[in-house]
Structure formats: C-alpha cells, structure tokens
C-alpha cells in the first residue's frame, strides 16, 4: 500500500505518507530533522516497507502540512504526532526513527508514552547538551551559522527548550535503542569528530538496551550516504521486537 493523506489534527492538517502492509509487526514511524520533512526518508522508505508498514509525515508548517498554533517544541510536536497516528488508526507499538532534531522528538515520545514504543533508532540525533558541551568547541563562524538557521520551524529558543525537555527525563528507557552516528561530519576537525562520536555513544545510555554504531563514511544524513546502515538497524529492531513477543507468548502458554 502506498497512500498520501492530509489528516485533521487540532484545527490544522498534517501530511502523511504510508507505505507497506500491516502484517502484525510494529509500524515504523519516521521523524525528520529540524526544518526538514518527509522527503528526507525517500532513500530508505521503500526498503523498510518491505518488512512492515512505514509512516512518514511533515511536521506542522513544513512540506505539505499546515501551520500549528502550538509552540514549536518537542512536547507539542509529540502530542501532534500522537494524534496523527490515532487519526490514521495506527495501533501501537511503534518503532520510532528520528534524524537529527527528529531524534529528540522520538526520544520525548518514548518517555511520554513508553507503552506505545517498541524501540528507537536515532540517526545522528542532536545531543541534549549540544549547546553547552559541543557548540563552544567549534569556530565562531560555525556557531553563528548554527544559530542563524532557526527560521524555518520554531526559533533557537524553542529548539533549546526541546533539548531541555528531553534532558528533564531522569528515568532510563527499557525498550531497545540503536544510536547511529555520522563519522564524516562536514566542517568538523578530528577533535570535533571525536567529541561528536563520544556524545553519540553516550546517547545510547538513554536505554538499558542501548547500542551504538558508527557510520564511518556518512555525513549528517546517514540515510542518504549509507542507507543500508539505517535500514539494517530498523530491520534488526523489528525482528527483535517480534522475537520477544513470540517468546512472551510461549512463556504465557507454558509457564
């Protein structure tokens, strides 16, 4: 199935694209980076949809979606995504895939609604302490360009508020999480790349079942540079979740 829809959500409409069949496996939901939209996943959506149903969408005000009156912070975006999935009649559990800022959003979703999330794949996601720990190590022109980019979807303060929202969760997630880090970042010195890799590795600690993998030949968009790395991570979690469900059923029947 390949379907595109505009879905009413709280007084405005969000665009969503569905691909693949409902087959009893977790639905994969993908969330793009800051100012980005569903096309960011074109390089992998078809391959992932061979194993399960996939949903991509444009956050409010981006792509084909209408603007939202709500603040552009992760908590608000997560509420909108939850309503979108409900309107689409997509039943949990979901396997959430987030790129860059989308990784912040799906992590917030997992903390807010842990019973709905079977696992996470974080694709070169933004670390919660990016501003305090990483940004100051970069050249002034990089820092200035970074701050000036926040004009397409929320402002710099709202973006940082989102990082603060994720940082506020103290409990460790129990679902499996795979962190994919880009090993060939643009404009990074060797020291900056090493620090980025370290921060991505630490991000895996968000879960008691966290894993870290370095995509050595990728810039920020791993799904474009090494799509097979992302597809493999998603398929791994889909199979892991299905295997766990099967084992739980067997143990229920044969206690």
Task: Produce a short descriptive summary.
The chain is an alpha/beta fold and 255 residues long.
List the helices and strands and how they pair.
Layout: E1 2-9, E2 12-19, E3 27-31, H1 42-48, E4 54-57, H2 74-87, E5 94-99, H3 101-112, E6 117-123, H4 130-134, H5 140-148, H6 156-167, E7 177-182, H7 190-203, E8 210-215, H8 222-225, H9 227-253
Parallel strand pairs: 3-4, 3-5, 5-6, 6-7, 7-8
Antiparallel strand pairs: 1-2, 2-4
Commentary on this structure:
The chain has 9 helices and 8 strands. The chain is an alpha/beta fold and 255 residues long. It has one domain: Rossmann fold (3-Layer(aba) Sandwich), CATH 3.40.50.1820. Strands 1-2-4-3-5-6-7-8 form an 8-stranded mixed beta sheet, with helices on both faces. The longest helix has 27 residues. The protein is globular. It starts with a strand and ends with a helix. The C terminus is likely disordered.
Report the oligomer.
Answer: single chain
Low-confidence stretches: 249-255
CATH superfamily (homologous) name:
Alpha/Beta hydrolase fold, catalytic domain
> What's the CATH class label?
Alpha Beta
Essential attributes:
single chain, 255 residues, alpha/beta, Rossmann fold, eight-stranded mixed β-sheet, 8 strands, 41% helix, 20% strand
